[in-house]
Amino acid sequence: MSEPASFTSSIAARYALAVFEIAQETDQVAELEKNIDVLSEALDVSEDLNAMLKSPLLSRGAQGHAIAAVAAKLGLSDDLSNTLSLMASKRRLFVVPALIGQLRA
User: Fold this and answer.
1) Which of 60, 72, 87, 101 is buried most deeply by CB count within 10 Å?
2) Between helices 96-104 and 3-25, what is the axis angle to 10°?
3) Are 8 and 94 contacting, i.e. CB atoms less than 8 angstroms apart?
4) Whether the Cβ atoms of residue 27 and residue 79 lie closer than 8 Å to each other
5) Rg (alpha carbons) of the chain, rounded to whole number
6) Which residue, among 50, 73, 52, 51, has the nearest Cα to 63 in the 3D structure?
7) Helices (H), 1-105
8) What are residue 28's phi and psi, to 5 degrees?
9) In this structure, what DSSP letter does residue 93 have?
10) pTM as predicted
11) For residues 52 and 16, what is the distance between their CA atoms, to the nearest angstrom?
12) How far apart are CA 101 and CA 15, in angstroms?
């Protein structure tokens, strides 16, 4: 595995573990699974969403507002929405596809 891919996978694994543990603690694992499917489908059909996740031109704030709006529109749980917002504040939205992969593993 290349270094950038390993870096992305490592970041995704940490966020995936955190969001999964929260879902377990709140007995929301089934809801998380549904949310991941919805988010994955949105990524499959939206070039704009993919571009926003990867854009270095958008500020943290702009990415945060955008991902919050997407999460609300998709009806994602508060826990997943908050995780995505945290990722935006840390400029880590580019790992969302890897996060989905980690949660499905």
Assistant:
1) 87
2) 60
3) yes
4) no
5) 13
6) 52
7) 3-25, 29-45, 47-54, 60-74, 78-89, 96-104
8) -120, 25
9) G
10) 0.91
11) 20
12) 12
Residue listed under structure tokens 């993919």: 50
Q: pLDDT per position in the chain (105 positions), as tens?
A: 455 678 889 999 999 999 999 999 999 999 999 999 999 999 999 999 999 999 999 999 999 999 999 999 999 999 999 999 999 999 999 999 999 999 998
What is the set of domains in the chain, with CATH numbers? 3-104 (1.10.520.20)
Query: Taking the CA of residue 3 as centre, how many other CA atoms within 13 Å lie in the half-sphere pointing to its CB?
Result: 0
The residue type of 72 is A
**Amino acid in the structure at residue 43:** L
Determine the 3-state secondary structure of 54 from DSSP. helix
pLDDT in the model for residue 105: 86
